[in-house]
Design goal:
Layout lengths: L3 H6 L4 H13 L39 H9 L10 E8 L12 E4 L4 E7 L3 H12 L5 E7 L9 H11 L8 E5 L10 H5 L4 E3 H17 L2 H11 L4 H13 L3 H9 L7 H11 L9
Helix pairs in contact: 4-7, 7-11, 8-9
Length: 287
């Protein structure tokens, strides 16, 4: 019979994952769901199991079992919010408090592994609260990545399996964070690792998010885009000329920020990471 985590691995999209977490929470228990239902015989010419889980019998006049039908009916209700959510897969020496209002769905696999879904802009406050709660006592790895739309070749359950595959890659001497800006990066994270924008200590990652907050607060979206386009100019003289024109349009605080950070000398990979993190933060109060 399928375990709750088996159901999570059958999710093809982020909407299905959130719907499944919600259903498992509403019907908590190691025996749920369908524990008493017999497995359907193998697929044949006249009958066969559910076309989604391939284990349980189909509901009457349907192609899917009762649980799969419920998941597929509930999943579209999450379409409006799913693009703004992130998944955190944790592998650590302890399980933190997962019953918070900002967490929209969670699952504890065992004494060391947990899964949660929360809004992207709640990742930073959640991580801050986590470090305040556990301090240096928590050691392991947090993998943060966006949800995935349904695709023909790889699903959300496959991405979770890739996260498990990578979970023991770093020594459990600190609390580490691996940040993926897109789900497919978990399939082959080598390029991101080579660029130095994949793995961080948790406190270092929070500092980077603080910088993204300030960056977002002091530069309007159009200024952020103009700066990004400016840094992609390959001709050094043209870039220097446009840099002067651009900085003269900024207010004093934004000008001082770029000067103090020596932003123009940043390597492209660091700039790339900053722009990725902008979507995960809100401007701090007072800016």
């Amino acid at each position: 019979m399928l375990t709750p985590f088996d159901w999570l691995r059958r999710c093809q999209s982020g909407t299905e994952l959130l719907a499944t977490l919600t259903l498992l929470h509403e019907h908590a228990g190691p025996e749920y769901p369908l524990s008493s239902a017999p497995a359907e015989p193998p697929y044949g010419a006249l009958t066969g199991p559910c076309l989604r889980c391939w284990v349980y019998p189909r509901a009457e006049d349907r192609a899917y079992c009762t649980f799969c039908t419920t998941v597929l009916n509930e999943a579209p209700k999450n379409n409006a919010i799913i693009r703004r959510l992130s998944v955190v897969w944790g592998y650590a020496n302890c399980i933190p408090d997962l019953k918070q209002d900002r967490i929209l769905g969670h699952y504890v696999l065992d004494e060391q592994r947990f899964l949660l879904i929360l809004p992207r802009q709640a990742v930073k406050p959640w991580l801050q609260d986590l470090l305040l709660e556990v301090g240096l006592d928590m050691r392991g790895l947090l993998q943060i990545f966006p949800t995935l739309g349904a695709g023909p070749t790889i699903g959300m359950g496959d991405i979770l399996c890739r996260a498990i595959h990578h979970e023991a890659i770093l020594p459990r001497t600190h609390l580490w964070v691996r940040f993926y800006s897109a789900p497919h990066q978990l399939v082959n994270p080598r390029r991101r690792s080579d660029e130095g924008i994949l793995s961080f200590e948790a406190s270092e990652f929070l500092c980077l998010m603080d910088m993204a907050e300030i960056f977002r607060a002091l530069l309007r979206p159009d200024q952020q885009q103009a700066l990004h386009d400016l840094l992609e100019v390959e001709d050094a003289e043209e870039q220097a000329f446009n840099w002067g024109r651009f900085t003269r349009q900024l207010d004093q605080r934004a000008h001082d920020m770029l000067a103090n950070w020596q932003f123009r000398q940043w390597p492209p990979n660091k700039v790339k990471l900053l722009y990725e993190l902008v979507d995960y933060v809100l401007p701090p109060r007072g800016y």
